[in-house]
Design the sequence.
């Protein structure tokens, strides 16, 4: 799940989707369709789709949360994200990977 933060993201996502998310941010949590649409908007708008297509999981982490790429504490948080990523890959019948996992 991706969470929108900052008013500008609500405004821009809403503009792209034809919704007033700036004044009605709860629409994202009240509708699965709107939640999915904002997640896809954010994914594409930040360029994470290109990183994912290149198999660069660490790059997507950097785009989502630079803090996880900046310190020891962040690194341990990042490793939790990597463990979840490996579990999701397994659910889809994909093998574990060791390439481009961290920032």
Sequence:
């Amino acid at each position: 799940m991706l969470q929108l933060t900052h008013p500008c993201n609500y405004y821009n996502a809403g503009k792209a989707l034809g919704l007033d998310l700036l004044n009605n941010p709860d629409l994202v949590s009240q509708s699965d369709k709107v939640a999915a649409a904002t997640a896809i908007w954010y994914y594409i708008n930040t360029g994470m789709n290109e990183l994912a297509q290149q198999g660069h999981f660490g790059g997507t982490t950097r785009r989502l949360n630079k803090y996880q790429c900046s310190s020891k504490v962040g690194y341990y948080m990042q490793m939790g994200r990597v463990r979840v990523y490996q579990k999701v890959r397994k659910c889809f019948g994909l093998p574990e990977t060791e390439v481009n996992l961290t920032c």
Remarks:
- The two ends are 20 Å apart (CA to CA).
